[in-house]
């Protein structure tokens, strides 16, 4: 480790050491990259994403409260219904004369349960293939959710819920445009080859299962947007950063902390996922056109070339902007970009600047290429 890097770590320790953190100073430090050592990056992200208060004296009580809230979400949205073990001779609290699995009433908890399965199937399919070039998300977490995996209770995990889904006749996909695709019968339970994922022993769960739970709870709490494909790519780097924190006291609560940080980030980014807002000033169309407006100002020749070839920003910037570049780079590079993105007060304007810079970086190839070559370059 170089002397300059050690000095940089020390600067962060000083900035994070006082009772009241100076956000302006911290933002300036983080803009040029955040060290991983000592859990500095994970801590800074929690502050930059407006999760942790700037007054450190409030952290202990705040975190205790937030983690209790998340535990309550687990109890209400994962464990119910099906809370009593039939083999203990207990009456099932989720099956009554008034509410049962065949109840057609739209207000029935069971009706909701079956509708939730549609969302869960899409989440499950996406999280299982999260960063397939890395083994991390397939490995067991050091801190499985004891509330759900407690052998004394035998609660239904989301993984088991997917495997035993009642939607056996069809697989439902909902894309961002709200289009529902239903596959032919008989394929729903063959989503994954039996040998594709290592089966973990009872009491263990893989990191992708934690991410699945976070996204499912988010979808339940935000029915207006629910889950849209691509959200898994946004929550993944946040969870990875928190779940690899060298400080075990923080790492143990990576799931709850990720949920709240992801929720805060989505509160700023969610308009990109809502189809009805696309053409508004806060929608994704306006942002995509802003990339070209900036390119026109910074590199007129390249802008005219893309216009001449009728290469519209929608063809490639949609993914760049909605997923915050998470699919354009390897995870370590995504994390480094997000250090700067999160530290910028006007973070989404900065994202447009980065997208414009990405185009200018390959300008020579774009100026020399035809439509087909350039589309391949931009959608790679």
From TrEMBL:
One of its GO terms (molecular function) is GTPase activator activity. Gene3D superfamilies: putative rabgap domain of human tbc1 domain family member 14 like domains, Ypt/Rab-GAP domain of gyp1p, domain 3. It holds the Pfam family RabGAP-TBC. The keyword Coiled coil does not apply. The keyword Metal-binding does not apply. Keywords: Cytoplasm, GTPase activation, Membrane. Coiled coil: none annotated. It is found in: Cytoplasm; Membrane. SUPFAM superfamilies: Ypt/Rab-GAP domain of gyp1p. GO terms for cellular component: cytoplasm; membrane. GO terms for biological process: intracellular protein transport. Residues 35-345 form the Rab-GAP TBC domain. InterPro entries: Rab-GAP-TBC_dom (IPR000195), Rab-GAP_TBC_sf (IPR035969). It comes from the Eukaryota. Acts as a GTPase-activating protein for RAB35. Together with RAB35 may be involved in regulation of insulin-induced glucose transporter SLC2A4/GLUT4 translocation to the plasma membrane in adipocytes. Interacts with RAB1A and RAB10; in a GTP-dependent manner. This is TBC1 domain family member 13.
